[in-house]
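Dear support,

I submitted the protein below through the web form. The confirmation email said the job was done, but the results page showed an empty box. After a refresh the structure appeared. I'm attaching both so you can tell me whether what I see now is the final result or a partial one.
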Amino acid sequence: MSYVIGPACIDVNDRACVDVCPVDCIYVGDRKSYINTAECIDCGACEPECPVEAIFVDRTARGDETRTLFLHDSKAFFTEVLAGRDEPLGNPGGARKVGDLNTDTSLVTGYND
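What the results page shows now:
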C-alpha cells in the first residue's frame, strides 16, 4: 500500500503533508506534489493533513479512472525525464535533498479540470 496525491492538489499545493511526513518522501513539483512510493513508509500521516483531501491510498484507485490516472502519473514523476531535467529523478532518498523541483509530469502540466 502507498499513498498518491490526486488532482485536487493541482494549483493548491498547500504543503501541510510535506511538513508532517516523517521520511521526507513528498516532492514538490510546480503545480502539485508527488509521493515517492519507494521511500514512503505508508504511515498515513499525510492524508489527514491535506486541506483539499487530495491524498488517497493507491488501492482505492481500482475502478476509479481519475485515481488510476494519477496513480500512474505519480510513478511517472520519478521514472520519466521531466521538463528541465537531464534524467529521471529516481529515488534520491529525501525531498529536502533536491528541494522544490519546479516541474511536473506532462499530465499535470496540461491538466485542466
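Response: this is the final, complete result; the empty box was a page-load delay. The chain has a mean pLDDT of 95.
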